[in-house]
Amino acid sequence: MAFRVDALERVGGFDTALGTGTPARGGEDLAMFAAILGNGDEIVYEPAAVVHHYHRRNYDELVRQVRGSGLGLTAMLTALVREDPRHLLVMARRLPSALLAVVKRGASQADWPDVCGMHPTYPPELRRQELIGMFEGPGAYLMSYQLAKRHGAQAMPSGAVVRASSGGQ
Question: How many CB atoms lie within 10 A of CB 22?
Answer without folding.
Answer: 27
